[in-house]
Amino acid sequence: MEKFYFTEQKAEVKETFRRARYYFSSSQTTNQKENRTMIQICPARAKKKTVVPLPGYLCEQKIDGQRYIIHPGKGCTSRRISAVTQEYVEKGDRVPHLVGTAFPQESLLDCEFVSPADIVQVELPGHIWDQLPNHPHHQFIKDLGYLPVYPHVSSTTSIMGSDAREALRKQSLCGQIWAYCFDILQFKGQSTTRSSQLARRRFLASQLEGIDPKRGLILMPQWTSLNADDQQLLFDLITEPGGEGIILKDPGAPYNAPSNWFKWKKDFPVDAVLTGAYDWGTGKLEGLLGSLEIGVYRAGVLYPVGNISAIMDSESKLVDLTANRAKLRGLVVECRHNGKQTKKSAPLGFTLRHPRFRFWRDDKNATDCTVEALLNELSVGR
């Protein structure tokens, strides 16, 4: 059996951890506050991309929900730093059913939060279900009769973006937030991040066996031995109704290794026009452009469909780009994106998901960048 590593947390604090204070109301005592101080870790991300299957890699659905680390008995922290507190944003009071789960304290569970109201039901062939390892949580998903897929997460965003009272009210109407748990970074105060992906997964699965998935904390369905054809099939079934894609994980890699996770997403091209609107950068980009709004034409009117990073092809060009920002309106860029997402407040009723710059299109007229062309590319496929 592969060795599973536990390490003292202090040994890794300098590299990946930092302290963050858990804030409570003034009615709570100083001792209560001190006892609930949480060590936080910035969650790992899929640093690599692939457009082909990777046989031998662990395979799971990529869910574009809201990423949180659950600290059982204490709270849950996002990967976003608050501009006010300069700490990771904490929202445990929105999901007390997850924070209060019967999992050992001083543990860290890496999760994706989603609302049941955002589910689209996807049927899987029997042979794909059959390759899902035996586990009570996997059986819970199988018993649903479909794989829950999340093309849009508007309900999730609405719930987690509300204050605690409103978040609980919304969950009373559309169901409690689910947390798909896909990794364990700490167990009873000891780090597990040095262990391999497969070893961490097996350990996590063993610890979740006795926890009822109906309470909302669910082991992420993961296939360990899909061949290339079945990985492709699963990808197609998830992305056809608008799902994000899949994540392929190196079974032998430790947490946050340079090439531990590969994201495989369905993306589309779009020629778009810079509208002239922009947002300023923050942090090291303060005083420079942060993002640029892009749009497409309909009946001669330019409508916004999203924002791309102002870094575009080179961070070194940001100073000149910022100085000449007034000249950007009307320039054409080719971008890639991961489909459209419904947004009632948007002029067209939708925006593009994760648009990103590819290159300038000096050869194309801005008025040729139309809604019709965008929708046509979506219908044609990747």
Characterise this structure:
With 382 residues, the chain is α+β, with helices and mostly antiparallel strands. The longest helix is centred in the middle third of the chain and has 12 residues, at 197-208. The protein has eleven helices and 24 strands. The relative contact order is 0.14.
Mean pLDDT over the residues: 87
Question: Can you tell me the CATH superfamily of the largest domain?
Answer: DNA ligase/mRNA capping enzyme
- What structural class results from the helix and strand content? alpha+beta
Q: Predict the CATH topology of the largest domain.
A: D-amino Acid Aminotransferase, Chain A, domain 1
Q: Tell me what the CATH architecture of the largest domain is.
A: 2-Layer Sandwich
Principal-axes shape call: globular
The total count of strands amounts to 24
Poorly predicted tracts of residues: 10-36
Descriptive key words:
OB fold (Dihydrolipoamide Acetyltransferase, E2P), 23% helix, alpha+beta, 382 residues, 11 helices, D-amino Acid Aminotransferase, Chain A, domain 1, eight-stranded mixed beta sheet, 2 domains, five-stranded mixed beta sheet, single chain
Would you spell out the secondary-structure blueprint of this structure?
Layout: E1 7-8, H1 13-16, E2 17-20, H2 30-35, E3 38-41, E4 48-49, E5 58-62, E6 66-71, E7 75-81, E8 88-90, H3 96-99, E9 108-114, E10 120-122, H4 126-130, H5 136-144, E11 147-149, H6 154-160, H7 164-174, E12 178-187, E13 190-191, H8 197-208, E14 217-219, E15 222-223, H9 228-239, E16 245-249, E17 261-265, E18 268-280, E19 289-298, E20 301-309, H10 318-323, E21 332-337, E22 340-342, E23 350-352, E24 356-360, H11 371-380
Parallel strand pairs: 4-17, 12-14
Antiparallel strand pairs: 1-13, 2-3, 5-15, 5-16, 6-7, 6-9, 7-8, 9-12, 10-11, 12-13, 16-17, 18-19, 18-21, 19-20, 21-24, 22-23
Helix pairs in contact: 6-7
